[in-house]
Design goal:
CATH class of the largest domain: Mainly Beta
Largest sheet: 12 strands, mixed
Number of strands: 18
Helix content: 25-40%
Structural class: alpha+beta
Number of helices: 10
CATH architecture of the largest domain: Clam
Number of domains: 2
CATH superfamily of the largest domain: Lipoprotein localisation LolA/LolB/LppX
Distance between the termini: 43 Å
Shape: globular
């Protein structure tokens, strides 16, 4: 169990930001030659092509731009939790990879199957590297000259995969069946991504009230590997996520790509020590937000013994639960969080009483003054309507 927890904390970020992020793609290269002329393909065939893709090796450069409609997290997280290492920075992936939730970042990746991945985050002259090689994870932050090391990391298991149809057509059938009456899945033409020909798979809600306008995935015409991912919000403006390869090579990276040597003078922190000390930053955050009524949101404590109630279905589903605490007041929050929360919250009222809607471009949450919480990728009005209907 301990090894699985390690895998979820450190290998999963590598897999998601490296292999998984690589296979969903991240900000496209500009195409000088225009959209390619490819054979016609149906949505069913394109989903099958994705399912049949077996990309195990790749290397490349990609950019990810994220705009959740939120203020910058850096000052908030730094003010509440610090670095846990004297305020001088940390190489812990749990802290470093939160940078990807806002702004624009350039990354280099390499993958050689599920056992070896490398991700390098480039921010100006500074670099942050994360390497997974077998049962070890190494991470290095050049800004602070600190190294993080975790040994004994194991794969979390194959159980979830056993329920997924192995046959690409069967998997495509399941995807399209699950879409049902709430989702439209179509082929939206072609694109050029990192110099490669690709089809565009467009996923759109059919329901009214969702904050998601569309999800577009550019799929490599030759390999079926997704190369670009764009999530657009009904609020307009820049995409919530616009990410794709600027350069990609599906050959096997050199074995030396995954070698790691501790830089001279760098301070090394072992994962076991982080586990022991891990309570400090989370406890600070828990105190800051927990006392404010925001701790454990979505956890078992907040949702209650029976978990949240799901109202509606598909893209307009709303999770509702009783937090067991009065709604938070901004003036009661730690000063580091007040500006952040003010920028998110709007006071609302209805048959349910009064409360505050905490909003982003995708996920919104209504917290009523009597402690009820309604969360979903829906408009604030949909949350108010759900709260009114519950009275």
């Amino acid at each position: 169990m301990a090894a699985q927890r390690k895998a979820s904390r450190y290998v999963v970020p590598v897999a998601v930001a490296g292999v998984a992020a690589a296979t969903i793609g991240l900000v496209p290269a500009l195409a000088a030659s225009g959209d390619p002329d490819l054979p016609e393909i149906t949505a069913q065939q394109l989903v099958e092509k994705i399912a049949a893709s077996d990309t195990q090796t790749l290397s490349g450069t990609f950019r990810i731009s994220t705009d959740l409609g939120l203020p910058a997290f850096d000052g908030l997280l730094g003010g509440l939790a610090g670095s846990g290492e004297g305020g001088e920075g940390t190489a812990d992936p749990a802290a470093q990879l939160t940078k990807l939730v806002s702004g624009t970042h350039t990354l280099k990746i390499a993958a050689d199957g599920p056992e070896r991945q490398k991700l390098t985050l480039l921010d100006g002259k500074e670099q942050y590297s994360l390497v997974h090689d077998g049962d070890e994870v190494w991470a290095y932050d050049s800004r602070s000259n600190r190294v993080f090391h975790e040994k004994g990391v194991e794969d979390g298991g194959e159980a979830p995969r056993k329920e997924i149809p192995a046959d690409p057509k069967a998997l495509a059938d399941e995807v399209l069946k699950a879409a049902g009456d709430t989702t439209s899945i179509t082929v939206g033409g072609t694109a050029k991504v990192a110099g490669r020909d690709a089809y565009r798979l467009v996923v759109e809600p059919k329901q009214q009230g969702s904050t998601v306008e569309s999800i577009t995935i550019a799929v490599d015409a030759a390999t079926g590997t997704p190369l670009k991912f764009t999530l657009a919000s009904t609020s307009g403006g820049k995409p919530v996520v616009d990410a794709g390869f600027t350069k990609v090579d599906f050959g096997r990276p050199a074995a030396s790509e995954f070698d790691f040597t501790v830089p001279k003078g760098a301070e090394v922190t072992e994962g076991d020590q982080v586990e022991k000390d891990h309570g400090k930053a989370p406890e600070d955050l828990e105190k800051a937000f927990g006392d404010f009524g925001l701790g454990d949101l979505g956890g078992a404590g907040a949702a209650g013994k029976n978990g949240p109630e799901v109202i509606g279905e598909g893209w307009t589903a709303i999770a509702a639960f009783d937090s067991g605490a009065p709604a938070p007041k901004t003036e009661e929050a730690p000063k580091e969080a007040q500006g952040f929360l003010d920028s998110l919250g709007d006071e609302v009222s209805g048959k349910f009483g009064t409360g505050t809607v905490f909003k982003t471009k995708i996920v919104n949450a209504l917290m009523t003054d009597d402690g009820k919480v309604y969360v979903g990728a829906v408009t604030p009005q949909a949350l108010v309507d759900a709260a009114n209907a519950a009275k």
